[in-house]
Amino acid sequence: MKYDFTTRVSRTGRGNLKDLMFTPSAIRQHNLPSFSGAEFEFRTAQPVIDAMKECAENGLMGFTIADQNYRDHIVWWVKNIRKADISPDWILPMQGTIFSVASAIRLFVKPEEHMVLMTPDYNRYDQAARRLKRGTTIFSPMIEKEGRFHPDFEDLERKFSDPKAKLFVLCNPDNPTGQVLSEEELHQLLSLARKYRMPILSDEIFADIPLNGKPVPLLTALAKDSDLVISILSMGKTFSFTGVNHANAIIRNPGLYRAFEEQRTADHFGSIDPMAYAALIGGYTPAGAEWLSQLIEVLKRNTDRFLNFFSSFEGVKAYTPDAGYVLWADLSALGMEPDALFRMLEEEALFACDRGEEYYGGKCCARICTAVMETEVIAAIGRLEKVFAAHGFRRKEE
């Protein structure tokens, strides 16, 4: 079956955060999609929509738990999409990825202690720690080499050896770069965490969407039974389902599972949203996998279009993502001040994207969402072409 990635969703009158708070007025006035925020501009998967319709028609919206059917669908999905084997007993439903991060912070980090992050990174992990008033986040900048970002293991060891460092939050695939750590790097990270008994919460919610044909390793599957590792999986990015608060923690260490489950209870976890349950049962299926394979082809074409455009200018760095639908570009070589740069993009090119400094990157870096209809991507690049030419930005010599 051929699925629809050409019909734009309507955000009007639906209280949509991206539309109301993150889409500049100039973009909205021209009825153009925004390339900020990691949400689809097209509809989610039809198998998910059909499953939620059936749930609504059935009319049961009561308390819902992770029964065997729910667990079996997750096991099947992880085996077929991530190429990893997990036990149904490792699955712990949560009320969202950031809810999970907050629970881990409460479990491991006292107010005078620290959480460790690698940068550039997703900004809401540190936001969660600050809201909870749990210590100071310690940042370890990644090493950029030949267009790739790598952990600085010497710096991480210094950070992990600090007696007040109590939790490491990993984003893999990384948000905002979309790059994936190699299996060798993940094993090295596990070894370092093992040395210092450092708990790792691994946010893997973009991992279902490989763009390079390589499954993204599941950290919990690489870990030992004694390791303090929590992998977070979610339909949030795979099916643009971020507004429905849900996630699943995958934990193979029995003691850690019990401790995290107790913390989840203390954090007032209620039950699985019936619509989230239905969506997972509909999405984590062969039909959902077929839809995902078609989505990936659209994202690959859009990603290539942006990479080809940005990398054609002198000094501009556009980093090839391995998974997901965010692309990271360093536009500092254009020689503009950050405010002027983003004003030019929004007002002249009618192109809205996320500022890199929000993700602990350079002030002239941009995060661009590629989950947009292909016709709109082509049109946006056309507008960027004209504006860049008008400003005299130099192309690389052929």
Automatic annotation (TrEMBL):
Signal sequence coordinates: none
Cofactors, names only: pyridoxal 5'-phosphate
This protein's UniProt keywords: Aminotransferase, Lyase, Pyridoxal phosphate, Transferase
Annotated Gene3D superfamilies: Aspartate Aminotransferase, domain 1, Type I PLP-dependent aspartate aminotransferase-like (Major domain)
GO MF annotation terms: cysteine-S-conjugate beta-lyase activity; pyridoxal phosphate binding; transaminase activity
Residue stretches making up the Aminotransferase class I/classII large domain: 67-378
Name used for this protein in its record: cysteine-S-conjugate beta-lyase
